[in-house]
């Protein structure tokens, strides 16, 4: 088993957040922050820039580390079938767009059906809009309002 270093981007423009719309059999429709696994010898900044371009077609620049959390899957079948994804550390960056123009995404996630701009106020624990990783979705307002990185904790998931 290995620990997967993952980057996620929070990109805000005119009160809206860029998210990936996703769909699968287990969760139905949900949103996910653009991002993914860091490659060996790639910096975190390089990873978040690459992942945003691949998944959304937008070029970004990381401004600051906004949050850190981890997910540890306890389901033995998941651990056996996905050993490289069973323990993830998420480095969440606040990013800015380099341009309002975007290109065609080149490498969407398997559950991703598209990317869209969603009103930030619609993403909170009071709304039914699910944003993954869950720790980020549940704390999005605190993350956006903070000036220092927030450790969101360690979450066990079945």
Care to give the gist of this entry?
This protein is α/β, with parallel strands linked by helices and 158 residues long. It has four helices and nine strands, in the order ββββαβαβββααβ.
Which terms would index this structure?
Nucleoside Triphosphate Pyrophosphohydrolase; alpha/beta; nine-stranded mixed β-sheet; 158 residues; globular
If helices are DSSP runs of H or I spanning 4 or more residues, what is the number of helices?
Answer: 4
Specify the biggest β-sheet. Answer: 9 strands, mixed
End-to-end CA span: 17 Å
Number of strand elements: 9
Overall structural domain count: 1
What would you note in describing this structure?
The chain is α/β, with parallel strands linked by helices and 158 residues long. It has a single domain (4-157), classed as Nucleoside Triphosphate Pyrophosphohydrolase. The protein has four helices and nine strands, in the order ββββαβαβββααβ. It has helices at residues 44-56, 76-81, 134-138, 140-145; strands at residues 4-13, 16-24, 28-32, 35-37, 60-73, 87-97, 112-119, 131-132, 150-157. Strands 1, 2, 3, 4, 5, 6, 7, 8 and 9 form a nine-stranded mixed sheet that branches. The longest helix is centred in the first third of the chain and has 13 residues, at 44-56. The relative contact order is 0.27.
